[in-house]
Structures are given as structure tokens and as C-alpha cells.
């Protein structure tokens, strides 16, 4: 290797408070000692940015010490934190992806007045929308490398420096993973291995790396690995050698020159896996619950602000921090339940308070003339119709004979379930407690206040029925046949989507034996609503499974009772890299349905800010996954179990794994619950329809019972933001308050391109901003395929 073309060396300590909290300061002092001892050495800190907030709370001297070191070793010590919580970014929501970057930038600037200008990570935080997200948060370049590939890896290229073209067309310069550098689960890249272990624990040297990639120029050997994995002998070996040059991220753009090629990796080229079912899926389910509750709360608070209510951005801000750190890869894949139990409940507590106060503020703006009303808010950006319900209790002795629902003076069809009649006064002709159900129908981003009055109303006619002898449930959308093993068939109209020789519901390898569920169904139907409950077992595991049908989406909830049984397959004696027990999803305790699909079957899933087809048998998606043939299809909408498994024509959803695992066995005891939804469809697969249905499940109508009369100025409905100028493929990602303004973010979700021009009678459009909220010159109303744009609104 010529001294005129040195190999660039990049070394960042992958640490932070999660997992490494007690060890960080010792290793930090060690890094400073090396900086003193080796004048050419440079190093960076790849901590999750949350670390600095945490140390400010518990040990404020730590950030002071880091600042002193940054000043003393200027240009040789660097901050490398590019996410707030070091997530595995494919498996967090689209808005979580944004906030991970935004909160990292703001945290770095708050404590150190600087933030890295190159996006680089240790474990897999890469996907096809990273160029757009990185560029909109101020990054000048990216390193397209996953240094430890246990849970994901990216494509390889035979070039030293190129342009990474994202899904939407955004371009950002990048240092790629070279062909042959490493791209498989359970390993590190070749250079990362040498930089962490040579010469004490490996014969693989930088010289060997340089010889293998002698055709690459500029050549970068990078280390992003645990703070305890580094070798001083290597630093000593390269000190003073002109063939090597230590650099920091900030030097890449200047040293590497112009990009030599374009890379346009598609979503499926970022290969991922997760141990779905680990810890009973509690952590993933909780993270999903928290991130969706967060987005719901900030939207509802924004609506309240539009009508003169108080902003609650401080609580929302703290809650986001708790959400983002709970998405840390070590919490999720090492099963750190104590950390999960610290951050998720706190986040949910805060968002619950925001929702409560914001909904109450909204309700106070409506004129309510009836003693009982229901405020209904549609948080999604399209017209939606959903069954809602309100329980009403009348004082003893003053019950009513009838109850009807009205929107203004217009009667709304409803059903009334009498919970008790007469009460203590024994007056059989009156009811004192009822549940009223009706279909609320709202425009996007709007609210309505429905009144429940003691008059004869307009009632939903009986549409659902159940024949216990044949196990046939008929609803407005489906005909479903049930048996002692589960769901045998689902028909939509005259077309069969789910079909098997016998029912299927749950299956798994439990205590070494393949097991299938068996039990009994109890079904009841109401006007416009059906519920079926299955009680049974699968092996040693008890089951209570409930499906609710009031529309096209079949909502499901299951509860398992575990008693420490082994779930899944154990591959005995497997080495670290080959220990794939946690990734054999078809042997886990899983929900399963047999489909009627034939011939060529295609998988499709949503990922952060995009949708992609896949031929993989493991269809891993963020909010939903589906498979379809030329005639029919079936989607699973998940609440944390983000993997649909193709098992021939059957489709399963892994829910529980309790067996040998590289980061520790986690056996399950007691009650574990899971929620998800089934969406059968007939005809051509419609990505937009699937995505909207999934988001309606994830972000349902917000409801608030209102008792007593209000004297607000809104009679019955209000629309917070007009979406008439928004193309149908544009989806609202978030609406949130910040520093007196509101920010509305939309993205194009179908890969078709559309227009987007949101307007509100309650807020003035102040132009477009980047993800950091900074004004941008480009104020185009066109959303290109998969593009993300943010508007600032002034209430």
C-alpha cells in the first residue's frame, strides 16, 4: 500500500447508558489515555444520545468532562451519536424514525454545541428511506455499513465512495460496505473485526484487509463496536505509519472527494431478522402501544391548540424520550425487562394525561344540549366510518323507555343493549343502564359530538347471525365457519379466502412436541356487531381468544397462560453465529390460518415511509404484512409482532418464544396478551387501502363521554384541517405542537406521487420546513413517490 494513498481508520466506541452505564466512564478515561499516548490516534463516542440526558440527571459532571475533553482533543475526539435510542430502525414506526434522529441532533447540540455530520451506526439502523431522513436532519453524508450484523445487514458495492439514492430519489454521499467485507447475520464486518481484536484475539490484520481491498480508493476501515472491544496493540502498531490515517466522521466529506457511482438499494436489500416472541413479545407490543399513543396524543393536543386550548408539548417531549429509549436494540433483543418497565409505563402515563386534558378541552368547545353525549375525533387524514359505543347510566327512579343517537338534529342509526332494567325501583318499563353502539362517520382530521337522547331512535337492523350447529357466523362482510380447532373458513361475499380441512388458530412446538389448539367457541351477535370467544389449550398453554367483527377489519385479542413451558425449537450445541433458535418462527407459538391462495403468491409489507413486495417466507413489516395471489389475499395488522410467516398456503404470526437464546433464555410464567387484526381481501391487492385500514386500526377514533350540558360555540362538527387539496396517496404522519407553532408532516405512501396542500381555518400555513423544523426554500405542493414533507402552521 502506497503512503500516498493511506488507509483511513475510523474508530467509535459503541456504548451508552443502556447496557454500558456503569462502565462508560472507565472506558472513556481509557480513550483519553490513548489520545495522550498516541498523537495520531482519533476516536469518537457512539453513545445513544439519551445517555447525555441521563447523565445530566444522575451525574452532571459527566457531560462537563466530555466537553472538557472535546476542547482539549479538538479534532481528535468526536461525538458520534446519530439516534436518541439506538433502535433497529426498520421495526419502529415512521414517526419514531424521525424523532430518533431529531432528538439526537438536539441533544448533542444542547450539551456539546456540535453534532456529527455523517450518519453512521453500529447495529442495523439502515433502510431505504435513510437518505431522506438523514438529509432532512442536516447530515452531509452516510456510512452504509452495519458493523455488527446480528439483526440486519445491507447491500455491498465495489466502490470506495458513492451516492446513496433513497426510495424517494434523495441523494446523499456514502461510504458503502465493500463486496466481500461481510454481509450475513451474526458477524461483524471484516475491518471492524480487525480493529477490535488484532492481534490478541484474531490473525486478521489491517494489512490483510488492505490487500483484499487494494482496488478500493479511498479505503476506509471502520470500527463501531462495544466500548470493551478494542486493542491498544493495534493503535500502537499503526502509530507513525504513513500507510494509515485515523479520522473522524467530520473529515469524510473533505477527504473522500466526489462520489464515484450511484447506489439505489431497494427495501429488500436491507436484510433483517428479529427473535419475534422473545419475552412473550411484551417489549415489542409495549413499544408499539407507546409510539402510537404518542402520535395520537400529539395530534389530539394539536386539535385542542387550534381551538384555543393549552399546548402540552413539555409532557409530549418527555414522553417521546421514554418511547425512543425503549426502542433501544439491547432492550428489545436482550430482553431487558427492567429497562422496558422503567420507560414504557412512564410514556403511557404522560400520553394518557395529554389525551385526557386535550379531549376535555375539545369537548368544552361544543354545544351539548343533551344530558349524555360522545365526542368522537378522527385522527387520520381521510374520511372514516367506525363503530363506536357509549355506556349510559340514568339515575335510579328516572330511567328512560328508549335511547336514540343524534348528530345535531339528525338521527343516527344505533343499537341499544340494555344492561339492566328497573333497578331498585322495580319499574320494569324503564331502563337505567344501556350500551349504545352506532357508526360514527367523520371526515379526516375532524371531530363530532353525538348526543344520546331519551327518545325513540333509528335503529340498526339485525345483520349478523350464528348457527351453533354448523359453527357458521354470518356478518355484513364475512361468513366464517368455526370448529373445535379454530377458524376453518372465511368467505368474503362468495369468495373463500381462508380454507382448510379443519380449523386452525394456534400451533407451536411446545416442550418438544408439535401442538395445535383445541377448545370451544361461544358466539354472540348484536345489531352491526359480533363477538366470538374461544377457550381452550395448545399443549400446556391455556388460551382465551376473542374476535370482534364490526367492519372489514377483524379485531383479535388472545391471552395465553404460560407455566414455564419450552416454546420453539432448540438446536443443540450451536455456536454463537449458528444459534438460530430464536429465528425459526414457524416452530413458535403462533396464530395461524390456512388460506385458499393458489399458484404464485406474493408478500407485501409496510416499512418506515414506504411499502415493498417480497418473496421471503418471513414477511416482516412495521404496521402490516400481507400475501396475495391473483384473486385473493390476507393481511395481518400487527401491534408489535411484526412478522407474517408463509407456511405453504398457511400464514402465521409468531407470538411467543421461550427457549435457548444467545442473550439469555426467557421462560414465560403467567398471563400474556396479544392484539392484532385480520384483513381478508378479494381481487387486486390495493396497497393504499391496506395501509389505510392498518392505520385506522393503529390510530382509532378518540372518544370522550360527555355528561351534562356545555355552552361551547361548535354545534356538532368541526374540521381542524382541510384535506381536500391532499391527494389520496398522501398520509398524515404527525401533527404536533412546538414552540407556539404546529407542524403537519405528510408522506406519499403508494409510490405514485400526489399533491399535498393542507389548509386550516384555525392556523395559517407558514411554509415548509425540514425535519428539524427549519425553514426551507422549496415549498412545492407536489409529493413525489415516497416523499416526506413537513408544513409549519401558526395557530
Q: Strands of the largest sheet, in order across it?
A: 29-30-31-32-41-38-37-34-35
* Helix/sheet category: alpha+beta
Helix fraction by DSSP (H/I, runs of at least 4): 10-25%
The chain-level mean pLDDT equals: 94
Q: What percent strand?
A: 35-45%
By CATH, the architecture of the largest domain is named Alpha-Beta Barrel
Distance between the termini: 62 Å
**What gyration radius follows from the Cα positions, in whole Å?**
28 Å
Shape: globular
Catalogue the unreliable spans: 422-426
CATH class bucket of the largest domain: Alpha Beta
H/I helix tally: 14
> According to CATH, what is the topology of the largest domain?
7-stranded beta/alpha barrel
Corresponding CATH superfamily of the largest domain: Glycoside hydrolase 38, N terminal domain
Tell me how many strands there are: 50
Count the domains.
3
* Assembly classification: single chain
Largest sheet: 9 strands, antiparallel
Write the layout of secondary structure elements.
Elements: E1 7-15, H1 24-37, E2 43-47, H2 50-58, H3 61-72, E3 77-79, H4 94-112, E4 118-119, H5 130-135, E5 141-144, E6 152-153, E7 156-157, E8 162-165, E9 171-178, H6 190-197, H7 206-212, E10 220-226, H8 232-238, E11 244-247, H9 252-255, E12 262-263, E13 271-272, H10 282-306, H11 313-326, H12 329-333, H13 337-363, E14 367-368, E15 372-378, E16 384-393, E17 404-407, E18 410-412, E19 414-421, E20 431-442, E21 446-453, E22 465-467, E23 472-474, E24 478-483, E25 486-492, E26 495-504, E27 506-510, E28 513-516, E29 518-526, E30 529-538, E31 541-549, E32 554-563, E33 589-594, E34 602-607, E35 610-614, E36 618-619, E37 624-628, E38 632-638, E39 644-647, E40 650-656, E41 669-682, H14 687-698, E42 702-707, E43 710-711, E44 717-719, E45 730-738, E46 741-748, E47 754-755, E48 764-769, E49 782-783, E50 788-794
Parallel strand pairs: 1-2, 1-10, 1-11, 2-3, 4-5, 5-9, 7-9, 8-12
Antiparallel strand pairs: 6-13, 8-9, 14-43, 15-21, 15-42, 16-20, 17-18, 17-21, 19-20, 21-44, 22-23, 23-24, 24-25, 25-26, 27-28, 27-33, 29-30, 30-31, 31-32, 32-41, 33-40, 34-35, 34-37, 36-39, 37-38, 38-41, 39-40, 45-46, 46-50, 47-49, 48-50
Helix pairs in contact: 4-11, 10-11, 10-13, 11-13
Amino acid at each position: 500500500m502506497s503512503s500516498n494513498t493511506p488507509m483511513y481508520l475510523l474508530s467509535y466506541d459503541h456504548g451508552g447508558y443502556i447496557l454500558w452505564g456503569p462502565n462508560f466512564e472507565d472506558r472513556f478515561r481509557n480513550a483519553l489515555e490513548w489520545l495522550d499516548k498516541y498523537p495520531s490516534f482519533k476516536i469518537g463516542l457512539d453513545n445513544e444520545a439519551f445517555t447525555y440526558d441521563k447523565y445530566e440527571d444522575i451525574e452532571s459532571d459527566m457531560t462537563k468532562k466530555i466537553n472538557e475533553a472535546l476542547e482539549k482533543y479538538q479534532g481528535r475526539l468526536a461525538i458520534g451519536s446519530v439516534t436518541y435510542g439506538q433502535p433497529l430502525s426498520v421495526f419502529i414506526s415512521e414517526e419514531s424514525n424521525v424523532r430518533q434522529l431529531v432528538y439526537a441532533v438536539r441533544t448533542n447540540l444542547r450539551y456539546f454545541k456540535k453534532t456529527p455530520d455523517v450518519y453512521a451506526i453500529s447495529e442495523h439502523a439502515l433502510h431505504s428511506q435513510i437518505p431522506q431522513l438523514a438529509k432532512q436532519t442536516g447530515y452531509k453524508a452516510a456510512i452504509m455499513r452495519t458493523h455488527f450484523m446480528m439483526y440486519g445487514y445491507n447491500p455491498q458495492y465495489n466502490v470506495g465512495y458513492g451516492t446513496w439514492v433513497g426510495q424517494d430519489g434523495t441523494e446523499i454521499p456514502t461510504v458503502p460496505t465493500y463486496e466481500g467485507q461481510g454481509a450475513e447475520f451474526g458477524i461483524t464486518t471484516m475491518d471492524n473485526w480487525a480493529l477490535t481484536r488484532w492481534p490478541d484475539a484474531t490473525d486478521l490484520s489491517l494489512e490483510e484487509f488492505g490487500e483484499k481491498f487494494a482496488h478500493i480508493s479511498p479505503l476506509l476501515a471502520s470500527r463501531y463496536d462495544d466500548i470493551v472491544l478494542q486493542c491498544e496493540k493495534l493503535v500502537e502498531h499503526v502509530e507513525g505509519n504513513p500507510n494509515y490515517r485515523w479520522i473522524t466522521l467530520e473529515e469524510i466529506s473533505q477527504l473522500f472527494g466526489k462520489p464515484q457511482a450511484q447506489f439505489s438499494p431497494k427495501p429488500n436489500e436491507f436484510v433483517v431478522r428479529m427473535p419475534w416472541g422473545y419475552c412473550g413479545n411484551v417489549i415489542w407490543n409495549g413499544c408499539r402501544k407507546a409510539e402510537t399513543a404518542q402520535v395520537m396524543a400529539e395530534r389530539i393536543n394539536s386539535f385542542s391548540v387550534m381551538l384555543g386550548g393549552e399546548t402540552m408539548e413539555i409532557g409530549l417531549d418527555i414522553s417521546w424520550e421514554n418511547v425512543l429509549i425503549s426502542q433501544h436494540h439491547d432492550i428489545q433483543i436482550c430482553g431487558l425487562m427492567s429497562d422496558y418497565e422503567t420507560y414504557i409505563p412512564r410514556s403511557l402515563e404522560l400520553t394518557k394525561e395529554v389525551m385526557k386534558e386535550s379531549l376535555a378541552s375539545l369537548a368544552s368547545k361544543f354545544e351539548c344540549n343533551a344530558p349524555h353525549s360522545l365526542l368522537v375525533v378522527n385522527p387520520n387524514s381521510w374520511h372514516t366510518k367506525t363503530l363506536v359505543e357509549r355506556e349510559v347510566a340514568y339515575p335510579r327512579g328516572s330511567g328512560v323507555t328508549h335511547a336514540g343517537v343524534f348528530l345535531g338534529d339528525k338521527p343516527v342509526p344505533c343499537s341499544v343493549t340494555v344492561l339492566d332494567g328497573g333497578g331498585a325501583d322495580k319499574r320494569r318499563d324503564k331502563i337505567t343502564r344501556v350500551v349504545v353502539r352506532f357508526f360514527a362517520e367523520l371526515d379526516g382530521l375532524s371531530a363530532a359530538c353525538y348526543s344520546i337522547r331519551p327518545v325513540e331512535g333509528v335503529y340498526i337492523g339485525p345483520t349478523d347471525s350464528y348457527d351453533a350447529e354448523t359453527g357458521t357466523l354470518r356478518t355484513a362482510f364475512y361468513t366464517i365457519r368455526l370448529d373445535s380447532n379454530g377458524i376453518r373458513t372465511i368467505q368474503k361475499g362468495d369468495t373463500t379466502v381462508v380454507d382448510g380441512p379443519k380449523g386452525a388458530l394456534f400451533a407451536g412446538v411446545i416442550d418438544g412436541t408439535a401442538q395445535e389448539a383445541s377448545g370451544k367457541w361461544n358466539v354472540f351477535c348484536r345489531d352491526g356487531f359480533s363477538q366470538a370467544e374461544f377457550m381452550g389449550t395448545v399443549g400446556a398453554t391455556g388460551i382465551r381468544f376473542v374476535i370482534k367483527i364490526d367492519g372489514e377489519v377483524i379485531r383479535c385479542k388472545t391471552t395465553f397462560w404460560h407455566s414455564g413451558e419450552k416454546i420453539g425449537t432448540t438446536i443443540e450445541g450451536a455456536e454463537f453465529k449458528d444459534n438460530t433458535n430464536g429465528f425459526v418462527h414457524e416452530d413458535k407459538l403462533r396464530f395461524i390460518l390456512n388460506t385458499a391462495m393458489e399458484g404464485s403468491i406474493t408478500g407485501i409489507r409496510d416499512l418506515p415511509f414506504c411499502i415493498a413486495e417480497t418473496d421471503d417466507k418471513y414477511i416482516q413489516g412495521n404496521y402490516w404484512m400481507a400475501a396475495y395471489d391473483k384473486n385473493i389475499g390476507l393481511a395481518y395488522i400487527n401491534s408489535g409482532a411484526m412478522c407474517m410467516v408463509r407456511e405453504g398456503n398457511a400464514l402465521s404470526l409468531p407470538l411467543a418464544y421461550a427457549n435457548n437464546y444467545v442473550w439469555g433464555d426467557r421462560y414465560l410464567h403467567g398471563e400474556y396478551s396479544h392484539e392484532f387484526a385480520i384483513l381478508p381481501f378479494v381481487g387486486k391487492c390495493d396497497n393504499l387501502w391496506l395501509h389505510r385500514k392498518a392505520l385506522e386500526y393503529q390510530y382509532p377514533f378518540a372518544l370522550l363521554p360527555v355528561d351534562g350540558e356545555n355552552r361551547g360555540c361548535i354545534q356538532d362538527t368541526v374540521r381542524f384541517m382541510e384535506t381536500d387539496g391532499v391527494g389520496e396517496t398522501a398520509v398524515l404522519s404527525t401533527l404536533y405542537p412546538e414552540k407556539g407553532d404546529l407542524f403537519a408532516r405528510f408522506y406519499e405512501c403508494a409510490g405514485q406521487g400526489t399533491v399535498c396542500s393542507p389548509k386550516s381555518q384555525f392556523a395559517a400555513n407558514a411554509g415548509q420546513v425540514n425535519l428539524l423544523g427549519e425553514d426551507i426554500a422549496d415549498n412545492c405542493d407536489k409529493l413525489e413517490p415516497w416523499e416526506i414533507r413537513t408544513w409549519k402552521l401558526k395557530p
